[in-house]
Amino acid sequence: MSIAFAGNSTTGTSREAGPLRVMIVDDSVVIRGLISRWIGAEHDMEVAASLRTGLEAVNQLERINPDVAVLDIEMPELDGLSALPRLLAKKRDLVIIMASTLTRRNAEISFKALSLGAADYIPKPESTREAAAADIFHHDLIQKIRHLGARLRRRPAVASPPLAPASPAPAARGPVARPVAPAPAPAVHALSSGSPSTRPFSAQAPKVLLIGSSTGGPQALMSLVTELGPVIDRFPVLITQHMPPTFTTILAEHLARSSRRPAAEAVDREPVKPGRIYLAPGGKHMRVARSGADVVIGLDDGPAVNFCKPAVDPLFTSAIDVWHGSILSVILTGMGSDGMRGGKDIVAAGGSVIAQDEASSVVWGMPGAAANAGICAAILPLNQIGAKVNRLFAGDRS
Q1: Active site positions, annotated
Q2: What local confidence, expressed as pLDDT, does residue 168 receive?
Q3: pTM, two decimal places
């Protein structure tokens, strides 16, 4: 069935099968052409429209009726951030992926867009003539469209509210926050016989907290660290979030504000100490190693792991040589399976893994891979992970 727009109602609980309809909104004819060709080559998606401005997208949304929109930030007439709330007001479950070049300003805008309802962001290469950068952009964009679109189709259809009568556009171009009702806390249920099995938590007291995340991770991380003050104060916390340079700089600043604790991109050879959050910098893998009596950060510019750089597995596996089985690792929302192999190694060494559950994940790829591998001691909603982590570091082993 189709999504209802203003003045209509929806019936049923699922969407029509068929290719995902993608609306491309970018003032660059080169980028529009590239993305159109990439989408056209995929069997499970199609180009619903290719538009030059955010205003065109807002005005034509009902006619186009896309599932996913790839929305540029910098455009004439109506920029992406200003168009975002207007698009979501017309179709609240439209999956919007923000696209921007790697500047600090655009990174800040992308984070703002996430708070206004964008599903994700993707950095555009500075030049499409750079083959490696274009290949990464191609791979990541198609995966984000596919996985975020698939999640949309698994959810019940949502009727969009009737629109108010048309009125002249306001002079101000700043974003208008879209009110979002708080979601009820998911209940904890015993895993059914068809659900992934869990194992007991390690009997060893954890001495470090490792976190891995990808799609949906920035929002999840900022929520989680608000609850982890007692752990951060006494133990090191190291995070790998799939994210490019500049974006990780901004994320570290947000994590510092959310946690009210020091948080920064890790620096090569710096000592790892309790009381702060270490974030893998974009474009570098973060590992840890012993250096005399100290534990130090190791950054490397090696090849991507699991199509990612930074990747979670290098952090997880390197930590075993330092803390052995005294590791608690958390795998949050994200595409792919990064973290699962490293999590297996942590469990084999005597440590523990917690995975975010499917209902609270934007994409249940990484945590789902860990859960289905049978390596998790708990599979929890995001809003219950912080309390569980605090209890485990306080001595609870249940």
Answers
A1: 214, 242, 338
A2: 38
A3: 0.84
